[in-house]
Specification:
The chain is an alpha+beta fold. The chain has six helices and four strands. The longest helix is centred in the first third of the chain and has 17 residues, at 13-29.
């Protein structure tokens, strides 16, 4: 059987995000039983019997978002399947990097042009890592944004 495209309403990015937002807000008002029904619709299997409403709500929200916006890229799926996901992470502005070093917790906030550590702006993570440890370190490796090279 050949199906022909007969046309449908144009879905714009803003209308899609509004629809998604409405769906996510609706999840907040659903009971556990209603969430179980929605789970069945999303995943095609019964909801886990002992799962709390919050877990069901979060998983369903994830499903709705990946359907609307997209999930993992093909490259990311291949990396996961191969057991070697990309460990080079780019921290976005406002992110907090936390590292425990010798029983002391160090927090760095990523700024648009540098990093904030101990109320001082730094140009690089490596400078902060050297300040903390006293030895030269790759800042991205020290803070877990990059896998150490071998």
């Amino acid at each position: 059987m050949v199906r022909r495209f007969t046309g449908s309403p144009v879905v714009t990015k803003s209308s899609m995000s509004t629809h998604l937002k409405d769906q996510l807000q609706e999840l907040e008002s659903l009971t556990r039983d209603q969430l179980a029904v929605r789970w069945q619709q999303c995943f095609g299997v019964s909801a886990p019997a002992l799962s709390r409403s919050m877990l069901l709500r979060q998983a369903i929200a994830w499903h709705l978002q990946t359907k609307a916006i997209g999930g993992l890229s093909l490259v990311e799926k291949r990396q996961i399947a191969a057991g070697s996901p990309n460990r080079n992470i780019q921290a976005s502005t406002g992110s907090r990097l936390i590292r425990v070093w010798q029983n002391q917790t160090h927090q760095v906030t990523v700024l648009e042009s540098g990093y904030l550590y101990e109320n001082q702006t730094w140009k690089s993570l490596s400078a902060i890592a050297k300040h903390i440890t006293g030895t030269a370190w790759s800042g991205p490796v020290f803070f877990g944004l990059k896998k150490a090279g071998r």
